[in-house]
Amino acid sequence: MRIMVINPNSSPEMTKQIERVLLGIKRPETLLTVVRVEDAPPAIETDVDAAQAVPGVLRLVRKANEEGYDVVIIACFSDPGLGAAREISKILVLGIQETSLHIAGMLGHRFTILTPLPHRVPKKERDVRGLGLGEALASVRALGLTVTETEAEPERTKARILDVARAAVEEDGAEVLVLGCAGMAGYASEIEKKLGIVVIDPVTVTFKVAEGLAEMGLRHSKRALYRMPSKV
Amino acid sequence: MRIMVINPNSSPEMTKQIERVLLGIKRPETLLTVVRVEDAPPAIETDVDAAQAVPGVLRLVRKANEEGYDVVIIACFSDPGLGAAREISKILVLGIQETSLHIAGMLGHRFTILTPLPHRVPKKERDVRGLGLGEALASVRALGLTVTETEAEPERTKARILDVARAAVEEDGAEVLVLGCAGMAGYASEIEKKLGIVVIDPVTVTFKVAEGLAEMGLRHSKRALYRMPSKV
Amino acid sequence: MRIMVINPNSSPEMTKQIERVLLGIKRPETLLTVVRVEDAPPAIETDVDAAQAVPGVLRLVRKANEEGYDVVIIACFSDPGLGAAREISKILVLGIQETSLHIAGMLGHRFTILTPLPHRVPKKERDVRGLGLGEALASVRALGLTVTETEAEPERTKARILDVARAAVEEDGAEVLVLGCAGMAGYASEIEKKLGIVVIDPVTVTFKVAEGLAEMGLRHSKRALYRMPSKV
Amino acid sequence: MRIMVINPNSSPEMTKQIERVLLGIKRPETLLTVVRVEDAPPAIETDVDAAQAVPGVLRLVRKANEEGYDVVIIACFSDPGLGAAREISKILVLGIQETSLHIAGMLGHRFTILTPLPHRVPKKERDVRGLGLGEALASVRALGLTVTETEAEPERTKARILDVARAAVEEDGAEVLVLGCAGMAGYASEIEKKLGIVVIDPVTVTFKVAEGLAEMGLRHSKRALYRMPSKV
Amino acid sequence: MRIMVINPNSSPEMTKQIERVLLGIKRPETLLTVVRVEDAPPAIETDVDAAQAVPGVLRLVRKANEEGYDVVIIACFSDPGLGAAREISKILVLGIQETSLHIAGMLGHRFTILTPLPHRVPKKERDVRGLGLGEALASVRALGLTVTETEAEPERTKARILDVARAAVEEDGAEVLVLGCAGMAGYASEIEKKLGIVVIDPVTVTFKVAEGLAEMGLRHSKRALYRMPSKV
Amino acid sequence: MRIMVINPNSSPEMTKQIERVLLGIKRPETLLTVVRVEDAPPAIETDVDAAQAVPGVLRLVRKANEEGYDVVIIACFSDPGLGAAREISKILVLGIQETSLHIAGMLGHRFTILTPLPHRVPKKERDVRGLGLGEALASVRALGLTVTETEAEPERTKARILDVARAAVEEDGAEVLVLGCAGMAGYASEIEKKLGIVVIDPVTVTFKVAEGLAEMGLRHSKRALYRMPSKV
Question: What is the pTM of this model?
Answer without folding.
Answer: 0.96
